[in-house]
Design goal:
alpha+beta
Length: 101
């Protein structure tokens, strides 16, 4: 399995309604793109204060590398990217993939 972690740092001007819209669109990808086993999400809850402003996280679990590689150029993923651009509320994103051992 492959874990695909995405962290967002939102602009100070980001409105909650747009954050919710983006979150819903991200979660909908599970039903639209084959090979996604699960999507989890949440907000930073660490007392260590080392999140560097990243407040919202998503973890996608893919069956394997191939499923992840299908997801990346998938039209529904591209549509999500268009929504990201349109809303313009993300100041920074961090993506980290690893194979589950």
């Amino acid at each position: 399995m492959i874990r695909h972690i995405v962290l967002f740092r939102y602009r100070e001007s980001a409105q909650q309604i747009h954050i919710d819209q983006l979150t819903s669109a991200f979660l909908e990808l599970k039903s639209k793109i084959p090979g996604i086993i699960a999507i989890e999400h949440g907000t930073n809850d660490s007392p260590e204060e080392k999140n560097m402003g990243f407040s919202h996280g998503f973890q996608l679990t893919f069956q394997d590398h191939n499923a992840r590689d299908v997801y990346l150029p998938h039209p529904d993923h591209a549509e999500f990217g268009e929504l990201l651009d349109k809303l313009d509320i993300v100041a920074a994103a961090l993506v980290f993939d690893y194979q589950v051992m």
